[in-house]
């Protein structure tokens, strides 16, 4: 252990920033292959099937990008919050509330409303619902200094239970009264998000668009400067005259809104009803790890989200080759761990310490007397 | 992760320092030899082939200016850093320390400038930490008894049951020393121990050290203060630029030759004393009245402070660190709220305003904490140089940053203030202390301001960087601004200030115009020995 | 009638609370050393799947708990490497492990020829003390009717408390969590202590998870922990990192989880979804209330260096 020298890198070249994560990815795939072999599956077949199902061909791409849309948004939600050291673990619950809000609006507005207005209203409702839900953590934090990790977390479970209640536990207006099996009521056709190609809807454009906007805000606006400073050093931020509580409150609210929009988009573009089972697939938590892998960079969130979506999209095809669906979650997890661990090598240079000289110099007194 | 077998000397029983019959116990002869020791950080040699000898029974001074490598050398001896090259021999046998624990088992103990005490633990718990002894009631009593005994022996008394955060700086230092003695330290290294002590506390420290070496301990005293070395050491080794620059018996060395060793060809007058220009003092730019500020532990840190800073004037606040200076300047800058009192900047009442308003009202602030407060350590130099002005023209317009203007400002400041070491996109944390300070000054001095509050601006800087900083302060004064200087270095305060305020336990206990400065009186006020007298009434 | 409802509630609270307590106890040790491990939920699941597998194949509770503990420890070791050696952000690392842990557990639970999903009760869990004691009216079921694990857990709380506050090991642990630089200077192996503490936390979570699936639930299902690991994380903070308070809190949460059943018997009908919410709402309310309380000492109780990676050569 004493032979290894770790020195921080003052500057990180492109080579390092691309090379290390790529290597980590490779390591993850190899580890995944190992586990597959140990459980009696053929890694080559598995990976090939995954590739076919997620990236090979129009249908596959449509599937992948559709899966990626909410992940981009939850990733953005986590990225901006974590940037100012506010650990919003509640994207999961904020997404659910966004979905609820959007469904409610879709089922309340007259079904003849033009799509533009309908979808627009749903997005706004989703954003507001997510924002308010985040507020339940933001307000105690701002006024009492309550730790947001626990509050946002607890609120996730409350939101999940509430969403379940609306569909499974009661006959709320969000539930389809015509079916005996509990199911959300379908939103009108005008509330459905227009499609780009097949099942891929314009939600992806909204998500990527927001990523670009946030990236621009972070690097080119005074608000972004405030965020970056707070994230680096709250003390320096105060010294700079930045209102730290107000800014973090704003960021947490925006974060919640983004997650809420994710929920709204899912309802409008994919499920077309409030469907708890399709929504409660850990989109929020995955978003956090996406953000971390993307090093909290809004633009970086997009490719990472797409990668993870590709893996998730391939899950459906696993059963056909006799492999458990959960292998995709496993693979995602391995990628997270591997890239996160690899981060260390981006930030630091690791080298071997040169061995100490083995010969002892003659002990002549080199210390002269006097100047 | 399992322990690798290490060379261990037989650990002396730490309790054996006070012998059973009560008489002083003599330690066996000790010798420490350092040969060609080297250590680099990020390609810069902090220590480059240094050698020196140490024997029991002597206080050995390690003299050199800031940045000469003294602290790094000692950190290697204490096992905190691993040398890149060279040898350390104890009693003739070569040793390789892998950790402070390792060094401790060979009898080397170090007392650092920044104390390594767990604030929330008691003195006894801190001393016992790492010893493998329990802290049940019985064990605690035993430790407390020993602490009391040792305290009496060496004049290092301290209350063993008190939590450390309640102790004064001098007392904490005593705990550190006792801690090392408990570990069986035969060689004690002290890094700038008097930096945080008042004159008479220093006296007590040296008495204790003398008692220790009389028993056979060896003491290494690291200092950049020549008076200290001349007055209290038996032998001295001088370092300059990480290398040996001379050594010898203290008694046979004249101050002039030591100075020559320390500074090389440029003599101690590297700060060739700039001629002090007489200034006509102007109107008040900062008026503080009855300021009370609460400290971190629920105690009042600043107590009814009132004073004024006028144009063309430097007001220096002298005082031992920890007497409320930090809370005071943080409160003046708006980083800490005052419970009562008023702060008027340039005629504007800013008593309840935040840092931004005070800045706009005309107060520039150079904080004590460079990388934690004054700069955002992870951000690059351009961002830091516009830290206080990013939301104003020309650096931004309508909420949008203008990167061209920012880069221009940054380039100009770096050039004018000779800030070195900054590279594209590199976090400023990689820059040296001197350059960081220049950067902060560049930013604060070029913005419009009427009063400059500078907290410990030359701390940790080498002589030339410190002189540059002082030059900037003088220039600010000449240009018609008021400067409020907080410094632990009394010499610096006396050199720069037109008015000297003395702070003790949060209150201003003395005010001296330059012409009536009485160093002895100031020293006594700083340590609370004297109370305010007529001559010094603020 | 009311008597036995009360008795049943209390008894079930202790049993339901034990997994939470085991996980929380482990996490207290981990956090006291300054490491924040949010991955408990994943570690509990790993412990559950490993323990259940072992129970199905061996029928021994003790062995199953041991295996569960090992599984939890293995996962926590990953967190230790990430958080301590590689100095990754501990929140992110912990969350990744929840995802990995739950994914891996789900995968293993459904994989291979012997899918655990199809198995019923894995192991018989007997009560420890003789029936005579357990049959005593009122006192019997409350104090004496439990399986050994419940009692051992209580003993562990006592041991943890004593070690933490009275022993040298505990002092060293706390020092590492309060001020790693000072601990390092005092000769303590900060890294080694933190690794050990994190592993102990993993063991606690793993055993808790195994106990949960074997003794409390009885059958395996995906996602069986349903947030219990997160409650343990919250509990550690609420209990001020103190073992005995964690015990009280764990049993309280155990009671809340069983509240649904109790209310049903008392013929109060509340939708089951709202019942599921109760522990989480309770945790939320308590966390907010604690930070609102004027008594500052609560917040000062957090280990000062919690969550901060330690780098000796940081200048």
Written description of the protein model:
The complex is a heterotrimer of chains A (371), B (538) and C (315). Chain A has 15 helices and 4 strands. Chain A has 371 residues and is mostly helical. Chain A has one domain: ABC transporter involved in vitamin B12 uptake, BtuC (Orthogonal Bundle). Chain A starts with a strand and ends in a 19-residue tail after the last strand. A 6-stranded mixed beta sheet of chain B has the order 6-7-8-3-9-10, sandwiched between helices. Chain B has a 6-stranded mixed beta sheet with strand order 16-19-20-13-21-22, sandwiched between helices. In chain B, a hairpin with a 2-residue loop joins β17 and β18. Chain C has a single domain, classed as ABC transporter involved in vitamin B12 uptake, BtuC, CATH 1.10.3470. Classes of the chains: A mainly alpha (371), B alpha/beta (538), C mainly alpha (315). At the A-B interface, α8 and α9 of A face β1, β2, β4, β10 and α8 of B.
Neighbour order of strands in the largest sheet of chain A: 1-4
Distance between the ends of chain C? 68 Å
Radius of gyration of chain A: 25 Å
Q: Structural class from helices and strands of chain C?
A: mainly alpha
The parts of chain A where pLDDT drops under 50 for at least 5 residues are 358-371
Q: Can you name the CATH architecture of chain A?
A: Orthogonal Bundle
Q: What is the fold named in CATH at topology level of chain C?
A: ABC transporter involved in vitamin B12 uptake, BtuC
CATH architecture term of chain C: Orthogonal Bundle
Helix content of chain C: over 70%
| Share of residues in helices of chain A | 55-70%
For the record, the count of structural domains of chain A works out to: 1
Q: Overall 3D geometry of chain C?
A: globular
Helices of chain A, by number, come to 15
Shape of chain A: globular
Relative strand content of chain A: under 5%
Separation, N- and C-terminal Cα atoms of chain A: 42 Å
Kindly provide the name of the CATH class of chain A.
Mainly Alpha
How many domains make up the coordinates of chain C?
1
How would you describe the oligomerization state of the chains in this entry?
heterotrimer
